[in-house]
Amino acid sequence: MKFASLTARVKPSDDLESDPWQVHSIACDRIDAGEDIVVLSIGQEADEVTPSIIVDAAVDSLRQGDHHYTDCEGTLSLRTSIAHYHQSLTGQFTKPENCITFAGAQNALFSAAQVLLETGDEVILSEPYYTTYAATFGASGATLVSVPVTKQHNYQLHVDDIEAAINSKTQAIVLNSPNNPMGTCYSRTEFERIVHLCLEHDIWLIFDAVYINIVEVDPKDLPHAIPGVDRVLITVNSLSKSHRMTGWRMGWIVAPVEVTQNLAHLSMCMHYGLPPFIMKAAEVAIDRASETPKLVRDTLARRRAMASPILSKIQGATFHDSGQGMFMLIDVSELGINAYTFAMRLLDDYKVAVLPCDGFGAAGNQLVRIGLCVDDSKLEDACENIVACAASFNAA
Question: Angle of helix 22-32 relative to helix 339-350, nearest 10 degrees?
Fold first, then answer.
C-alpha cells in the first residue's frame, strides 16, 4: 500500500546516531526494567509538579461539567489572559484576536509551518536547532536552509550569514531565544537587523519563545518593540517550562490577525478545540500562578551554580554554559568522537542519560546537552560521572 510523501519527511533517521531521542528512549526502557538511571536528556523538571492551584482549577472545571466542545481559537477568557501575559513579557500591544491556542508549542510550530510554508519555499534555521525543527518545518514541503553557529564565534549568531542565505524563495526565518540547545539569548541589535531583513524581503519571523519566561530578559531586547515588526512576527509560547506543565499540552501563537484566522481554519480540521478544563487551568496558571516562572528560574540558577564548577573540571572536552536557561553543553570534539558515542558510554557505564545533539543539525554532531532537571544531589553525582566519562576516553 502507498503512503504519502509526508511520512518520509517526518520520519526519524534510520541511523541511530542521527536520532536524537535514541539514547533517551534506551534510558527510559532501562528504567522501566528496573535500572537506576539519572535522566538529564529531556527538558522538564523531573522532581517538580504542577502547582496545586492549577491542578485544582482543572479538577474543579471537570467536576462542573466543563468538558464539551470549545472554540477552535481557544476560549475568549484564556486568549484575553494570553494577550495580557504576552504584552507583559514582550511589551507588544496584543489583543485576543491576535492569539490562538494549540496542544503545546510543538503543535503550534507545526501548524504555523503548514499555513506559511509549502513546496518550493525555503526556511532559514540557526543551527544547531531544536531537534524536531527539521521535521516540523520540512513536513510542509519547504526546504531547510541551515546557518551554523560555531565554537570559534562562541556559538553566537552572525546576522551576515542569515542575510547571505536569503533569496527569492525564502519564506521564513526561525529563531529560538533562549536557544535550545545553546541557551543563547539574541541581542536587540541582532533582532533589529533580522526584523529589517524580514520587512525588506517580506519574510515571516517565527520566534520560538518557550524558554523566555524562565530567563531574565528585558522586553527592550526582544524583537516585539521594533517598528514594523507586527506585520511579520509570529511568536510561539507555552506553559510547559514556565509553569511546570509539560504534560498538559498547552501552547499558543501570537500573530497578525490574518495569520490566526488561517490557523483557526487548520485547527478546525486538526483538533476542533482544546479541552476546556485544560484551558481553564491555563488561565489560572497565567493569572494566578505568576510566581511559578521565577521559582523555576531560581531553581535552575541554583542547580547551575552547583553543576558548573564540577563540569568545568572536565578534561579533553569543552564545557559551554550560556549562564541561564535549562541546559548546559559539552563539546566532545577534542576526544575524537561524536556526541552519540559519548552519550552511550555515559549511559552504559555511568547510568546517566544526556541528549546527543547529532539530530540538531550537523553543527551539533559533537555537542552533548545536559539538562538541569533533577534534584540537586542526583545532578551533582551525574555531573561527576560526566567528568569521569570524559576521563575514560582520555585514558583509552
Answer: 10
- Distance (Å) of CA 11 to CA 107, 167, 282, 316: 16, 28, 31, 35
Q: Return d(Cα 131, Cα 133) in angstroms, integer.
A: 6
CA–CA separation, 115 vs 265, rounded Å? 10
Rounded to 5 degrees, φ, ψ at 38 are: -90, 120
Contact call for residues 144 and 123 (beta carbons, < 8 A): yes
Q: Say if residue 303 is in the same domain as residue 385.
A: yes
**DSSP letter (8 states) at residue 27:** H
- 331 with 342, same domain? yes
pLDDT tens-digit map of 116-136: 999 999 999 999 999 899 999
Strand, helix or coil for residue 105: helix
1 part of a folded domain: no
pLDDT in tens, 31-90: 999 999 999 999 988 888 999 999 999 999 999 999 999 999 999 999 999 999 999 999
Domain that holds residue 319: 6-49+292-395
In this structure, are 149 and 256 located in the same domain?
Answer: yes
The domain that contains 375 carries what CATH number? 3.90.1150.10
